[in-house]
């Protein structure tokens, strides 16, 4: 909907570079609105078309196809004169400040004012002093740009873009030449001044550390506006209500990790949940005295971190960026994660199902270290998770072995009678398993296993899947021998 609060309104905009055979479309079907006072961040990979879009909005290029209205005026078909006229409503900030080296700071800023229709030299001086105070550079009034630091130059550029109180500020990677702290300070300053003057801001940046300042984040991917974070989130975790989506995505925390960098580490305290927006990660199990093992790969649209949050509060695996990948994740804190679980049955079911699979995968690959991870994943995906009440019998001594059992949660007790009808017993904990040797050898269970004093959760795999898993591996002696019987006989 377009109303008088709308500063930028774009519909079905296309843009091309080159002509004929060499013509290349760089913007496709762009639809975007920016309202007064809004602080919008435009992100996206290099070459995706952000600068081209910004320069069209800034009236530095002519529109080819579609509708682009600024402050209600249609720019498709506008004359050069009209474009120049329109530019007076903007403040424009570029990557490296476009200050003129032979003019003082004051003269540079005053130049923006001289282009305004109601220019008065006296007022211009007062406005220049005021804006320089606002950006913390009052003492640099008579300095030349050559004597300023990179951060100071960008602050002068901001002062000169904002001194005219423009309706719209356009900034193309204004922090690119600055270090982290200076970059964030510059954008925070721009944010504060724009809000005070009710200017709308459209800023292009790669810098994920400033995304939290945005009222809205728009992704540009390959010339198209990509999904907004709320859309990304509802694709990954369906079923949330609008209010929660809004809460989760208005100021998302998005972090970037480089090739082979660890995002979470096994054994660390778990306090965050991660949604993978871009790139590939590996799930790695670190084992004492053994080489690390990659047990799974995750891609865009997947999530991780729920196992630690929902189990014992510790990371059960390391998550690391795959080689030659760069990863972007949305980070959800524990409190918000709990809200997710409470908000949508669909999401809760999905997360719990995946949690089971992952816990099973990690226990199974521990139990069967020689089995190929992809076989383990396939079996874990089909395995059943069964909960047994306190004290209930899971397998009975003398029964034909039908299944392989692996304990996911809770404590079990195994009992075996010897020749004199005396019982020996031992406890079984998560990660331990039984039924393996009996399944492989076609024997009856030589023991009884029952749940302990609380409810337990057990993963169950049928004979066929288990035996095929064993067949496909370099059979591992431990799996053919009865670990549990051995333990009971020695206890
Ligand atoms: P971004 O700012 O997101 O890095 P740009 O808008 O600068 O992307 O560029 C988008 C695409 O258009 C790129 O593929 C780039 O090579 C191409 N491009 C940019 N300017 C020109 C030009 N003047 N002539 C031809 N192609 C261009
Ligand atoms: Mg660019």
């Amino acid at each position: 909907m377009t109303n008088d609060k709308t500063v930028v309104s774009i519909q079905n905009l296309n843009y091309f570079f080159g002509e004929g055979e060499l013509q290349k479309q760089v913007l496709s079907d762009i639809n975007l609105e920016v309202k007064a006072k809004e602080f919008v961040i435009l992100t996206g990979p290099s070459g995706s078309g952000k600068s081209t879009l910004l320069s069209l909005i800034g009236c530095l290029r002519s529109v080819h196809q579609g509708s682009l209205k600024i402050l209600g005026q249609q720019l498709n078909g506008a004359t050069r004169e009209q474009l120049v006229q329109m530019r007076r409503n903007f403040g424009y900030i570029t990557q490296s400040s476009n200050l003129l080296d032979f003019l003082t700071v004051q003269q540079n800023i005053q130049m923006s004012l001289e282009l305004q229709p109601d220019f008065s030299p006296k007022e211009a001086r007062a406005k220049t002093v005021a804006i320089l105070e606002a950006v913390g550079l009052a003492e640099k009034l008579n300095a030349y740009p050559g004597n300023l630091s990179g951060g100071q130059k960008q602050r002068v550029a901001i002062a000169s873009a904002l001194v005219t109180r423009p309706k719209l500020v356009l900034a193309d990677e204004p922090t690119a030449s600055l270090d982290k702290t200076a970059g964030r300070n510059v954008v925070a300053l721009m944010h504060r001044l724009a809000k005070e003057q009710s200017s709308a801001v459209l800023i292009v940046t790669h810098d994920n550390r400033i995304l939290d300042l945005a009222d809205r984040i728009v992704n540009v991917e390959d010339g198209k506006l990509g999904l907004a974070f709320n859309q990304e989130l509802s694709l990954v975790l369906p079923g949330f209500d609008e209010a929660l989506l809004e809460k989760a995505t208005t100021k998302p925390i998005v972090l970037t990790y480089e090739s082979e960098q660890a995002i979470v580490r096994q054994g660390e305290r778990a306090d965050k949940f991660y949604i993978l927006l871009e790139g590939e990660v590996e799930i790695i199990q670190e084992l004492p005295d053994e080489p690390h093992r990659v047990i799974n790969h995750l891609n865009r649209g997947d999530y991780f971190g729920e196992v630690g949050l929902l189990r014992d509060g510790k990371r059960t695996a390391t998550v690391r960026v795959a080689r030659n990948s760069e990863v972007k994740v949305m980070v959800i804190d524990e409190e918000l994660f709990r809200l997710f679980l409470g908000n949508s049955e669909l999401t809760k079911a999905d997360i719990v199902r995946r949690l089971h699979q992952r816990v099973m995968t990690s226990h199974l690959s521990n139990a069967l270290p020689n089995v190929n991870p992809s076989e383990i994943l396939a079996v874990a995906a089909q395995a059943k998770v069964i909960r047994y009440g306190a004290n209930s019998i899971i397998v009975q001594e003398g029964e034909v072995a039908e299944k392989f059992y692996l304990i996911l949660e809770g404590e079990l007790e195994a009992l075996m009678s010897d020749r004199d009808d005396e019982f020996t017993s031992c406890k079984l904990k998560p990660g331990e398993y039984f039924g393996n040797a009996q399944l492989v050898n076609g024997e009856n269970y030589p023991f009884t296993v029952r749940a302990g004093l609380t409810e337990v959760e057990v993963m169950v795999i049928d004979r066929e899947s288990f035996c095929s898993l064993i067949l496909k591996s370099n059979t591992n002696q431990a799996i053919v021998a009865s670990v549990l019987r051995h333990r009971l006989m020695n206890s």
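Residues 18 and 38 are 34 Å apart (CA to CA). DSSP finds 16 helices and 26 strands in the chain.
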